[in-house]
Amino acid sequence: MNPPQIQDDDALRRQLLAHLRHLRSAGVEWLPPGAPLEVAAPPPTDDTPSAQQASAFEIAPEEVASAADALTLDERRSALQTLAAEVSKCTRCTELCSTRTQTVFADGGPGVELCFVGEAPGADEDAQGLPFVGAAGQLLNRIIIASGFTREEVYVCNILKCRPPGNRTPLADEAANCRGYLERQLELVNPKFIVALGGCAATNLLQTTQSIGKLRGRFHDYKGIPVMVTYHPAFLLPHRSPHMKGEVWNDMKMLLAKMGRPVPQK
User: Fold this and answer.
1) What is the DSSP letter of 147?
2) At what angle do helices 135-146 and 245-259 cross, to 10 degrees?
């Protein structure tokens, strides 16, 4: 006996939501985002509408809350730990996994207001397993404090989770291999605002070919989250372009105004 056809989209939505609740109760903490579900209508008969009237219907992604949205902060924190463990075993990039000391997942917890996304770990980060702990990291800490935050109040991660040999710029295929990890990470953290540090972070996060010069000075969108682009702290170090620190501070003041936070006077 054939199972009965689902005659209306409300019934299908109820079944999908019930299934999501069942998955959560079974301990499933994350589901990959997928394309809208399409269900073809049954062939027309004397008792059913015509093919034109009974066209396929869709359930838009926003109509079914993602599993991450339904998680508590503790559940998100646990899911991030699980993801970090998965990343630590990643071997997608042969060169990177053979030369790294360890993966560098992130620093911070879920539910923060602000997230900084950099390029890739350097030597210090590869040694300690945390992002932005070297000279560039110390400068980032000063930027964070000057903006009225503490390091503990923000989330910090990179496009890549492994150090490229010689601190070279990440290759396109390496960024693509890490893209899924980054997307799942940001979905679970769910920050209200993102700062992309440097051209590599900006172009990979936003999937654009525009230069950092063209990306600065305005806000962009990453899955509904406002993104501000500014220079990487390493670019501001004394041996490079310390005179550009004022430009980064202007970017941060623009961000703080967007966030509705007071702009500290320097």
Assistant:
1) T
2) 40
Phi, psi (rounded to 5 degrees) for 55:
-70, 165
Q: Domain range holding 210?
A: 73-259
For residue 194, pLDDT beyond 90: yes
Looking at the fold, whether 124 and 251 belong to one and the same domain comes out as yes
The bridge status of strand 193-197 relative to strand 225-230 is: parallel
Please say whether the beta carbons of 126 and 160 come within 8 A. no
Q: Name the token pair of 2.
A: 């054939």
Cβ pair 51, 45 in contact under 8 A: no
User: What is the reported pLDDT for 40?
Assistant: 43
CATH of the domain at 161: 3.40.470.10
Cβ(96)–Cβ(162) under 8 Å? yes
- Rounded CA separation 217/225 (Å): 16
Three-class DSSP category at 133? coil
Domain count, the chain: 2
Q: Are 80 and 49 members of one domain? A: no
